[in-house]
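The following block was generated as part of the benchmark described in Methods. Ligand: S-adenosylmethionine.
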Amino acid sequence: MISMGKRTDTQSMYRNYQEHGVENYYREKWREYKNFHESNIKELLIRNIGRFKSDCILDLCSGGGEVTKVLLEKGINNISGADPYTFNLYIKNTGKECIDLSFKDILRGRMDKRYTTIICSFALHLVDEKSLSMVVNELFKHTETFIIIAPHKRPFLERIKGVNLIFSDYSLTHKGKKVYMRGYVNKNYSQSYRNGE
Ligand SMILES: C[S@@+](CC[C@H](N)C(=O)[O-])C[C@H]1O[C@@H](n2cnc3c(N)ncnc32)[C@H](O)[C@@H]1O
């Protein structure tokens, strides 16, 4: 089973990525994906649910629906997933739609819908550093708020021009490590979004 959390730590996940390459890894093993930090994801989402608009949410790199399942439990239904490898697992676990969308697709301008909030959990570190600002800027053409959940402080999106941190929180794992949740807006997008452009 591929996993994030106590049974397989972040280092062994890193080793798997090194050995197989991230994309091959998920292409072959998507059926077995499990995030053992789901309780941290749940705690963070529930504690911060009032800090983001839930009218239309995209669960980006949606895995097995770890974010979506929590929000569905809280009565948020206008949510869908996007993942190039695990979309069948996501659909099975959540009953929601999932588009086949990779970071490369995002850079190619393949997103065609607007969301109030995009949430990316345990995945934004997979974008290489030189593409990160382009991916984030492209996402901000389609969302008012962008939220990341990650077991480390990286990436620092507030370093990207126009991107502002609006909230930050963390949850402690059983080993006392922090899982972070951070919310961002883009000044320029917020203005055009409010104007309905
Ligand atoms: C560690 S999992 C996180 C899944 C889920 N969001 C969670 O919190 O457990 C990383 C996810 O990124 C997806 N992924 C891997 N490479 C990707 C790429 N190039 N573009 C978009 N998603 C990718 C994988 O299919 C996988 O579902």
